[in-house]
Design goal:
This protein is an alpha+beta fold. It contains twelve helices and 16 strands. The strands form three sheets. Strands 2, 5, 6, 7, 12, 13 and 14 form a seven-stranded mixed β-sheet that branches. Strands 8-16-15-11-9-10 form a six-stranded mixed β-sheet. A three-stranded antiparallel β-sheet has the order 1-4-3, with no helix packed on it. Helix 8 packs across helix 12, helix 9 crosses helix 10 and helix 9 packs across helix 12. The longest helix has 46 residues. The chain is globular.
Length: 499
């Protein structure tokens, strides 16, 4: 029996039909040349032989009586593979846009809480002959970095599947049938331990907070001025509303090498380039409907709290706010402002990283958080409340080598994340094998033309690449002139008669 941490449980308790709390991915795979088998059956068999490599696949949740405390993970000895791994065939012609629409539909539905919280779909019928793999796992079980570690356990690094040591044939017991008394005892014990941990870490937390000066803390808060922002940290936009359970999804790829080169030329980070491209795309999308506010847009950016080498399958992340500087017209000046805002936020987040709690007392929290989440959606408070941020933007580093599954090569690794009330658009990018794979997902009512927005992201990257090349050209020319002058001077000295 393992209790959900306070952070993991939060994703479980705030889930509603309008806001499913699972994260996913969409991959396109190329079948081996001359392949004649049934990829769905081969893939399902390989997954079945590796379930024991990732505990998320073989555990489910047991709820506490009266929801007085967080649920506990218990082993499930009877995983129904046919339920969790499914086949879908697209109707003709099988375009990529059809695939995006189907993924949006699949991502909008809640998962069965009586089973392990994951599903995988093998999608056939694409007109280019490839197969697609869409998977989703509840956010209560994994965050972005844990998802990458999970993929490494299930995928191969060569076309030939690596042998996996089979599971020991021992039954782990019917833990999911724990009695009410046992669950209640575990709940009280866990709560007592959480309070003890809270009191133990409180001095260090207060010290870390005191080390951050008010000017430094103020530097990370977006500076909004004017009636368009009311009293929130971000201006109000059509993206900051209550959402429905209907989704739109779009996926695009850009060259990782180009983005790295652009970042190097302009003296910023890769993440700054991602933020700048998203800033240009979102501002352009809003401007299409005359809905771009004068005040700068603000991004909510997840920050990993993981120590190097930590691959635990749970959530260890926080959120920082970054100004997208959309009030600055010049793209290079906007990029500098984004870099400055991001650096300040990272500095503050780094100072608090060690003391931000990922577990905290939760006695009575389940029914309270569930009730508040339901109230937020049904009352449509997000339509009137001032937003803290306008869009969620996340960048997850992934493997820089090709992955394989059942002999098929994975060519893309598009993320599929979570929009929420007041943040109807989520842009997540993951690097994979030389590319940056963007996954944009939103509420269909708030972001109906998400394909246009995805195209704007690609065009924004192209613009930044061109600006970086143009900015470097004068420096290269000046360096060439200096080298030529130096060579000419050496030539004149060698030609002069010796004294």
């Amino acid at each position: 029996m393992k209790h959900l941490s306070g952070m993991d449980a939060t994703f479980f308790h705030i889930e509603t039909p309008e806001t499913p709390m699972h994260v996913g991915s969409l991959s396109l795979v190329e079948l081996p040349e001359g392949y004649q088998g049934d990829f769905y059956e081969d893939y399902k068999a390989q997954i079945g032989g590796r379930l024991h490599l990732a505990e998320v696949f073989e555990r489910k949740l047991a709820l506490m009586p009266f929801e007085l405390s967080n649920p506990v993970w218990v082993d499930d000895d009877d995983v129904d593979l046919d339920y969790h791994v499914r086949r879908i065939i697209l109707s003709k012609p099988g375009t990529f846009q059809q695939l995006e629409q189907y993924v949006a539909r699949l991502h909008s539905s809640l998962m069965d809480r009586s089973r392990p919280l994951w599903e995988i779909y093998v999608i056939e019928g694409l007109q280019d002959g490839r197969r697609a793999l869409y998977s989703k796992v509840h956010h209560a079980a994994v965050d972005g970095q844990a998802g990458v570690a999970l993929a490494k356990a299930l995928y191969d690094i060569s076309p030939d599947p690596q042998p996996v040591k089979p599971r020991r044939q021992t039954r782990r017991g019917d833990q999911y049938q724990l009695g009410a008394a046992e669950l209640m005892s575990a709940a009280f014990k866990n709560t007592a331990e959480q309070y003890m941990k809270l009191f133990t870490t409180l001095p260090g937390t207060l010290q870390a907070i005191s080390n951050i000066s008010l000017p430094k803390l103020g530097s990370v808060l977006p500076k909004q001025v004017g009636p368009q922002t009311d009293w929130g940290l971000a201006p109000k936009t059509p993206l900051n509303v209550s959402i429905t359970n209907q989704r739109t999804y779009a996926a695009r790829s850009v060259s990782l090498a180009d983005v790295k080169q652009t970042a190097k030329r302009l003296g910023v980070t890769l993440n700054d380039i991602v933020m700048a491209a998203c800033a240009k795309a979102v501002s352009r999308y809003l401007a299409d409907d005359n809905a771009l506010p004068k005040a700068p847009l603000v991004a909510a950016v997840p920050v990993s709290l993981r120590e190097p080498g930590n691959t635990e399958q749970n959530n260890q992340a926080s959120i920082m706010l970054v100004s997208l500087a959309t009030d600055i017209r010049d793209p290079l000046e906007r990029l500098k402002a984004i870099n400055a805002s991001s650096s300040s936020s990272k500095d503050v987040a780094g100072g608090l990283k060690a003391v931000i709690p990922t577990d905290f007392p939760s006695f009575g929290a389940p029914w309270l958080m569930t009730g508040l989440a339901t109230l937020l959606g049904r009352s449509k408070l997000a339509d009137s409340l001032p937003p803290v941020a306008n869009v969620t933007i996340s960048n997850v580093p992934g493997p820089q080598f090709p992955l394989y599954m059942a002999g098929a090569k994975v060519t893309t690794y598009f993320p599929v994340s979570i929009p929420t009330h007041s943040l109807a658009l989520n842009i997540t990018v993951q690097s994979y094998n030389g590319s940056l794979d963007y996954g944009l997902i939103g509420c269909r009512r708030a972001v109906p033309d998400i394909d246009d927005l995805a195209d704007y992201v690609v065009e924004a990257h192209q613009e930044l690449n061109a600006l970086a090349a143009a900015a470097e050209a004068p420096a290269v020319a000046a360096q060439t002139v200096d080298l030529a002058s130096a060579a000419a001077a050496r030539g004149r000295r060698s030609a002069s008669p010796k004294a």
